Amino acid sequence: MLAQEIRIRGEPTADPQKCRFVLEAEVLSRSPVSFDKESDTSKAPLAEKLLALPYIAGVSISGSAVTLTGDNVESWPAIGKEIGGVIREQIKSGEPAVEEEVMDIGDADLFTQVNLLIKNDVNPSIAAHGGVITLHSVNDGKAFVTMGGGCQGCTASSITLKQGVESYIVAKVDGVNEIVDMTDHSEGENPYYTQPIPQAGQTGGGCGCSSGASQSSGGGCCSN
Asked: Which residues neighbour 138 within 8 Å (Cβ) at sequence distance 6 or greater?
């Protein structure tokens, strides 16, 4: 499939400063990775290009999805086409979005410490509510996790993560100062969003970035 033919749709998240761009093709076949402006992106060309955009503060890549954190973004539809162009250009180049040399777990020592706390202390506590937390990597003092089971999509998940899990782990592990949630809460048992959010006046594949794909009226956080 040619890069310009790949359809990309934008999906809303619980945070208006985040937009999830979903491709027809897989971007990353292994564990999710995340980057911000301070990360070393020399071996992650897609993240490097996206973070070069002045309005993007963070990039998370998982499977066929690229989740972007904005820097005071007022309208995702207004920038969706440019973002889609960057993603398609990366696919067209033939380079991997993230090179194999990029460690999945980040800081191995901190990963081990945090993972033990999650396995032995955190997960047994939230298991009673059907929840589970999975650690993916620890980089630059940030532990990147996803929430599953009853925690995925739960409106109280941010409280659980920040006031409970983050406070506990930060107090226990020197070198970790933040827990970053990479969960797609729209796919949970109690999703924040079950239908796309309509925004009138724009057509596209759901994110304002579907040039090169068939045009249709869409939904989500990034178009009508």
From this structure: 105, 106, 107, 110, 111, 114, 144, 176
Is 42:49 a contact under the CB 8 Å cutoff?
no
Query: Nearest-CA neighbor of 151 among 120, 185, 176, 180?
Result: 185
Task: Determine if the pTM surpasses 0.85.
Answer: no
**For each of the chain's 224 residues, which pLDDT tens digit applies?**
445 578 898 887 878 999 999 888 778 866 678 888 988 899 899 999 999 999 999 998 888 889 999 999 999 999 999 999 999 999 888 888 888 766 566 677 898 899 999 999 988 888 877 788 888 888 889 998 887 777 766 766 777 788 788 999 999 999 999 988 877 666 555 443 333 323 333 333 333 444 333 333 333 444 33
Nearest CA among 205, 5, 208, 202 for reference residue 88: 5
Ordered structural domains, the chain, with CATH: 1-102+195-224 (3.30.1370.70), 108-187 (3.30.300.130)
Beta pairing class for 28-36 and 56-63: antiparallel
